[in-house]
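# nightly structure sweep
# worker-07 picked up a monomer target from the shared queue
# config: single-sequence mode, recycle default, output format = structure tokens
# input follows
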Amino acid sequence: MIKQVMTLLFLLLSWNNSYSQSGNIIIQINDILLTSEITVLNVKTELSPYTFSAEYIPGKLTLSEKAWEIIKNDSVGNFKLSFNYQTFKRKKVKSKNFTIELSKYQLTKNYLIINIYDFRNRKYRKWYGPYTTKEYLIELIYPNGPFYPRYKY
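# output follows
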């Protein structure tokens, strides 16, 4: 009897996790964890002309049910996560928009760490600038995922 109850409990817990509306995502910019610097966070898919707003707390990206349904749809391959990041230097507010292309496959992993190297900081431009022509480099860290080694001159 205990074995059957434990099996039922396990199935219910695994079913609940597979249909959750949040992803285990951590966002870092220049190796610093983001906590409250994000002002606008949107999710846009290839199929849907709509932009869905999202809420980010370190370790948790929360989306609406409709957004999750569209992302988990079989015909959706990739989707874009974009947000504005604000920095404060010498009484000046600087804002930068970052756009990250993600896939359903990456959301199903145990964790996803998005490390963005902003090339406004010269140190990161020197280390990672040769990998891209954009103003920033996005490194997605997940189990068995790739990484970018630092470029040495």
